Amino acid sequence: MWRVLWTLVARAARGPLSSRPCSRQSSGAPALGPGSTIFALSSGQGRCGIAVIRTSGPASGHALRSLTAPRDLPPARKACLRLLSDPCSGEPLDRALVLWFPGPQSFTGEDCAEFHVHGGPAVVSGVLQALGSVPGLRPAEAGEFTRRAFAHGKLSLTEVEGLADLIHAETEAQRRQALRQLDGELGHLCQGWAETLTRASTPFAHHLPV
């Protein structure tokens, strides 16, 4: 436990997360950068009333225009009812609510789009296949939306862990604890510890070898 706490304190002492690269990116993961736009089903597998499909990256606006009629982007952060069609065949796929989140005012800090479609397997599969046919888009890896939010400074390390805990929470106590962590309670505590340690070590700094 103390090793974890000291690790968090050390991370906080090194400065804002937004100024550091994401250390959790695996060597085999696609690099972040221009031309890398991802999409995924965000609401979980299985039949449901509404399924949410998200995109993130510079081609999100193009993807939204490619699947919707009319082709103009909806107003930012406002839900609009649009007909979704396959960009290759023109076949109608669903009538859905779509939302446009231009970066950096989005979950990941990048341009993002959301498609709130009917949750039948055929509808979800059709929309995912249509997005896959749009140039510049690729399926997201597990956790990649959150990883991008972390890399762009939208979430701190402790907030990322709080989000994961909230998604997997099964009891009220777990939910409350995870929500507090997602709201930054643990991060603020660690930041306070880091500042206290920094002040305490200042008088001894000149004794340290250069």
Automatic annotation (TrEMBL):
<keyword id="KW-0547">Nucleotide-binding</keyword>
<dbReference type="GO" id="GO:0005525">
    <property type="term" value="F:GTP binding"/>
</dbReference>
<keyword id="KW-0342">GTP-binding</keyword>
<dbReference type="GO" id="GO:0005739">
    <property type="term" value="C:mitochondrion"/>
</dbReference>
<dbReference type="InterPro" id="IPR027368">
    <property type="entry name" value="MnmE_dom2"/>
</dbReference>
<dbReference type="Pfam" id="PF10396">
    <property type="entry name" value="TrmE_N"/>
</dbReference>
<dbReference type="InterPro" id="IPR018948">
    <property type="entry name" value="GTP-bd_TrmE_N"/>
</dbReference>
<dbReference type="Pfam" id="PF12631">
    <property type="entry name" value="MnmE_helical"/>
</dbReference>
<dbReference type="InterPro" id="IPR025867">
    <property type="entry name" value="MnmE_helical"/>
</dbReference>
<protein>
    <submittedName>
        <fullName>GTP binding protein 3, mitochondrial</fullName>
    </submittedName>
</protein>
<dbReference type="GO" id="GO:0008033">
    <property type="term" value="P:tRNA processing"/>
</dbReference>
<comment type="similarity">
    <text>Belongs to the TRAFAC class TrmE-Era-EngA-EngB-Septin-like GTPase superfamily. TrmE GTPase family.</text>
</comment>
<dbReference type="InterPro" id="IPR027266">
    <property type="entry name" value="TrmE/GcvT-like"/>
</dbReference>
<feature type="domain" description="MnmE helical">
    <location>
        <begin position="157"/>
        <end position="200"/>
    </location>
</feature>
<feature type="domain" description="GTP-binding protein TrmE N-terminal">
    <location>
        <begin position="37"/>
        <end position="154"/>
    </location>
</feature>
<keyword id="KW-0819">tRNA processing</keyword>
